[in-house]
From TrEMBL, chain B:
Source organism: Zingiber officinale
PROSITE patterns the record matches: RRM
Family: Belongs to the eIF-3 subunit B family.
Protein name, per record: Eukaryotic translation initiation factor 3 subunit B
GO biological process per UniProt: formation of cytoplasmic translation initiation complex
Length: 326, 717
């Protein structure tokens, strides 16, 4: 497997997202400019200029027409995917950490960080079909979790929102009332900050990665813990294969230790696990720093990883990969 | 203390009596003075608990000095001055800490006084130093710690025969040796846990035997034959063992114990502590106790200043080199010895006194070591008088103290002594100055202890200037390995003390060029050696067969810091301990370099295999077994196969179960997904939404009329 190295960012990567067809790959980094690439050959198509801070997260609409990005400059921006123009900008009082379009793309859930005495929050915005009708008011604001909320996504049929973050607890919220419906168990759940959350293709289950060196698979509707994958490093990113029963987990030791240890010692590998047997299948090396972002192509035949080193590595699987027997 | 009332109870009772708790400002409520409604404040409780701490240990810091002169009031102050002078030298006397009672009738003193020190240690020291102090002929001090009075007062007046307890058979402390699968145990310390495991290479994982949190306060140590596991605590050391689990077998009281050491047959245990002096100008005080392991009886104690125990040569800042006492005389635990200034003090364990009642005088001796099997001491005396008196290595027989062999060595900078573990050979690594005295080179003096007159042979490496990085004898064997060289990739040479024709000459077997190794680990059974590159080489491992002179396997345990063979020589453990922040844990390898399993643990401190006592089989029997190995191994191979089949079967079942469980989940999800489809389409404004529809291949037949032409077919009629 020869990866395609994509150098378009000058700072560590934060997030990767494929569009539904799997022909476009959007990348966010701590520099201020999200990029879009051809997911097939890694050619850069364009950039989205306008943010004034690290971009933490993005999502693309189902028709691949609109991109939404969450940034540390306290804004969430809507973009025209095709020509890179900014359609709208939501302003907040604190950095925005994650963003997710609902089914139907009419709503977006945004999380904001605790900042200057403000607590962290989950906010739901209505997304107008025509950006000239766009309003900035939140439909719903949820507060409660302590510390940063690193990711919030929509549950089935937009009826719930699932959030996870620094307080190690996964919560399911009702989108009508904003009420807390379920909480993950402290005992069996993660022991340290949850850094990432990734849904399965059909939205029936999701995977969380945590600094406690494990990733856990949960049922989306009942919040039942199904599987746990244990690694040797804090987990920064994770993704579920849409094609095979595989999950991929990436991380590495904390950024502060990177300069003092050998690259080999850092374990900057994207590790593949068998989703059902929880056994390690293999690893993909290459990054010079911890892996911060992972995403599978919707066809399951390639995946990309983004690292602290500022590179995106795009891997098309060899045929051997599809013949792995466990 | 009043019973604890929870917030929920308070809320409940508030609701019952109709009070809105949120409307009450709790700070505004003032209790009548002295009334606490039976609820003690938590803060006060802490205070009460703190107080007794000060008096902990009673009056251990007060001594009573008896046999003082009885003086009239005129001379009272003078006597007090004398006493103060004597006792303030030893430690700090508390203010008003001297109290000399006076008889109310005669106004004369009563001939005794109390002195209060800052610490119990000072009081103890004062008692030791001044008990029997002669002030003058008729006044010999009798000094006691005040606590002792109380202790001796409690002794009953009448002697009673102590009850003889009926004999209770103890546990079989060597139960672990009877393991059916002949496995070995090891202990690890990680975080606050200490755990003992079976090494189960067939299952490719360890099996937990016993686990305990905060089992020890600093480290654990197996006794040399593996019977006991010793733990170290503030109050002393303890040994643990037993048939199925680990029970505490004995405690050895020794406050602030720092180091422990067992005698080779684990009859005795030596504990060591050093105490900060109260006066910064004084040197540290050292206490060494020797206990009988089984009875817990204190056999002998040594107390003194660091200087008395510091070895002659070093005398530096650190002073003490551990172990202070080294055990000799092989498996009988007969002798132990320590080095002092110009002396070697050899003690015997029958009486725990010096052999011949005096220590052995050896001028300027700096180092000594015992033969592992015989009561023979090897001594090293460095060069004296600027080279006029040569350095000397000599072998001394105990208890006779006669010199068996001596070798003078010229222009020597340093010597190091290596015994082969059967006591057959002794290698002395000698660093000599070159003529210019600017650099040194290294040679070996090889002693054959078991041969007549102990012949000595000199061995120099092919390249004399090579630095010696490591040296190791083959256990129970006649070979040794040396890592030598200057560059980043040194060479490794193997030598034998025998040659094919002549048994009396050392011969070189092989040199391996430019290896990434800096440490040598022979298998305890000999024959195999692990060449390891620790530290700078990041944990390179090479498993080498010295019989065949070939490499069996190479491996790597990145950042490995510690390596230990199991006592049988079947497995090797490599570990990364907490000196590194990352990668903590251990790997278990087979003797031929196959990685069997890995365990990672954060804050990994120790890995120790449980030692085994020496085999009871005779050499002939061992040889016979080796000869018929095939016959014996059949049984074990069959067992191995059974286990692996069983494992496969288990594994298969487990996988099937996991897969079935998963399928259940998937079925459920599919059902939900199906049920929700309509809603989903609605949410997407009627757009056909599910993937399966989008990509469904539909065969559509389309008929299209391209052209119509009429042709008149001629009637063939």
């Amino acid at each position: 497997m020869r990866p395609i190295l994509m150098k378009g960012h000058e700072r560590p990567l934060t997030f990767l997202r494929y569009n539904r067809e799997g022909d476009l790959l959007f990348s966010c980094a701590k520099d201020h400019t999200p990029n879009v690439w051809f997911a097939d050959n890694g050619e850069r198509l364009g950039t989205y200029r306008g943010h004034n801070g690290a971009v933490w997260c993005c999502d693309v609409s189902r028709d691949s027409m609109r991109l939404i990005t969450a940034s540390a400059d306290q804004t969430v921006k809507l973009w025209n995917v095709q020509n890179g123009t900014q359609l709208y900008s939501f302003n907040f009082d604190s950095p925005a950490k994650s963003v997710d379009f609902s089914v139907g793309d009419k709503l977006a859930v945004i999380t904001t960080d605790p900042f200057m005495g403000l607590p962290s929050a989950i906010q739901v915005k209505q997304i107008a079909r025509d950006s000239s009708d766009q309003i900035s008011d939140s439909v719903l604001t949820i507060k409660g979790p302590v510390g940063r909320i690193n990711r919030a996504v929509w549950g089935p049929l937009n009826k719930t929102i699932i959030s996870a973050g620094e307080d190690t607890v996964i919560r399911v919220w009702d989108t009508e009332t904003g009420q807390l419906l379920k909480e993950s168990d402290k005992e069996t759940g993660h022991q340290k900050t949850i850094t990432s959350l990734s849904k399965s293709a059909d939205g029936s289950h999701f995977l969380t990665g945590s600094s406690d060196k494990s990733a856990k698979l949960w049922d989306m509707r009942t919040l039942t813990l199904i599987k746990t994958y244990v690694t040797e490093r804090p987990v920064n990113a994770c993704a579920i294969s849409p094609l095979l029963d595989h999950v991929v987990i990436g991380g590495g030791q904390e950024a502060v230790h990177v300069t003092t240890t050998d690259r080999r010692a850092g374990k900057f590998e994207a590790k593949f696990f068998h989703k059902i047997l929880q056994e390690e299948i293999g690893g993909v090396k290459g990054h010079f720093g911890p892996i911060n972002a992972l995403a599978f192509n919707p066809d399951g035949r390639s995946f990309s990883s983004g690292g602290e080193d500022g590179y995106v590595r795009l891997h098309h699987f060899d045929s051997d990969y599809f013949n792995i027997r466990m | 203390m009043a019973e604890v009332i929870s917030m929920a109870d308070i809320e409940a009772s508030a609701a019952r009596i109709g009070i809105d708790l949120s409307s009450i400002n709790l700070d505004s409520i003032q209790l009548p003075p002295g009334e606490d409604f039976g609820i003690q404040s938590g803060d006060d409780g802490d205070l009460y608990q703190d107080d007794p701490l000060e008096f902990e240990g009673g009056f251990g810091n007060i001594i009573v000095v008896d046999n003082l002169p009885v003086v009239p009031p005129e001379k009272f102050e003078k006597l007090e001055g004398v006493i103060r002078k004597i006792y303030s030298q030893i430690g700090t006397i508390r203010e008003g800490g001297i109290w000399m009672p006076v008889s109310p009738d005669t106004q004369k003193t009563l001939g005794y006084c109390f002195i209060e020190y800052n610490t119990a240690q000072e009081a103890e020291l004062a008692r030791e130093k001044t008990n029997g102090y002669k002030l003058d002929k008729s006044h010999i001090f009798a000094v006691n710690v005040l606590d002792d009075f109380e202790k001796y007062m409690k002794v009953p007046e009448e002697w009673k025969a102590s009850e003889i307890k009926p004999y209770m058979p103890g546990e079989n402390l060597q139960q672990w040796l009877t393991d059916e699968k002949a496995r070995d145990q090891f202990v690890i310390r990680a975080g606050s846990n200490t755990e003992v495991f079976w090494n189960d290479p067939r299952q490719l994982m360890p099996e937990l035997v016993h686990q305990r949190q905060y089992w020890t306060e600093s480290f654990v140590q197996w006794s040399p034959l593996g019977t006991y596991l010793a733990t170290v605590h503030r109050q002393g050391a303890a040994v643990w063992g037993g048939a199925s689990t680990f029970n505490r077998l004995m405690r050895f009281a020794h406050p602030q114990v720092r180091q422990i050491d067992f005698s080779p047959s684990e009859k005795y245990i030596i504990t060591y502590s050093s105490h900060e002096p109260s006066n910064p100008r004084d040197s540290h005080r050292i206490v060494i106790n020797i206990f009988d392991v089984r009875t817990g009886k204190l056999m002998r104690d040594f107390k003194g200043n660091v200087d008395e125990f510091a070895t002659g040569g070093s005398g530096g800042v650190s002073g003490i080199s551990w172990p202070v006492f080294r055990w000799g005389g092989g498996r009988e635990d007969k002798y132990f010895a320590r080095i002092g200034k110009n002396v070697i003090a050899v003690y015997e364990t029958e009486t725990f006194t010096l052999v011949d009642k005096k220590s052995m005088k050896v001028d300027n001796v700096v180092d000594f070591s015992w033969s592992p099997t015989d009561p023979i001491l090897a001594l090293f005396v460095p060069e004296q008088g600027g080279g006029n008196q040569p350095a000397r290595v000599s072998l001394v027989q105990i208890p006779g103290k006669e010199e068996l062999r001596q070798k003078n060595l010229f222009s020597v900078s340093d010597c190091k002594v290596y015994w082969q573990n059967n006591g057959e050979y002794l290698a002395v690594k000698v660093d000599r100055y070159t003529k210019t005295k600017k650099s040194t080179y290294t040679g070996f003096e090889l002693f054959r202890i078991k041969e007549r007159d102990i012949p000595i042979e000199v061995l120099e490496l092919d390249n004399k200037n090579d630095k010696i990085i490591a040296f190791a004898w083959e256990p129970k064997g006649h070979r040794f390995a040396v890592i030598h060289g200057d560059g980043p990739r040194p060479d490794i040479s193997f030598y034998s003390m025998r040659t094919s024709q002549n048994t009396g000459r050392v011969s070189k077997l092989m040199t391996l060029k430019s290896k990434q190794a800096n440490a040598l680990y022979w298998s305890p059974a000999g024959r195999y050696i692990l060449l390891a590159g620790l530290k700078g080489f990041n944990g390179q491992l090479e498993f080498y067969n010295v019989d065949e002179l070939e490499t069996m396997a190479t491996g790597e345990h990145f950042m490995a810091t510690d390596i230990e063979w199991d006592p049988t020589g079947r497995y090797v453990a490599t570990a990364v301990t907490s000196v590194h922040e990352m990668e903590n844990g251990f790997h278990i390898w087979s003797f031929n370099g196959k990685l069997l399993y890995r365990i990672s643990r954060d804050h990994f401190y120790q890995f120790l295999w449980r030692p085994r006592p020496p085999s009871l089989l005779t050499t002939e029997k061992e040889e016979e077994i080796a000869k018929n190995l095939k016959k014996y191994s059949k049984k074990y191979e069959a067992e191995d196969q059974d286990v692996s089949m069983q494992l496969n079967e288990q594994d298969r079942k487990k996988r099937k179960m996991l897969q079935d469980q998963w399928n259940e989940w998937v079925a459920k999800w599919k059902q939900w997904h199906e049920e929700e489809r309509q809603f989903r389409i609605q949410l997407r404004d009627g757009e056909a939404s599910d993937e399966e529809e989008e990509y469904e291949a539909k065969e559509v037949e389309v008929e299209e009329v391209l052209d119509v032409s009429e042709e008149i077919v001629a009637d063939q009629d």
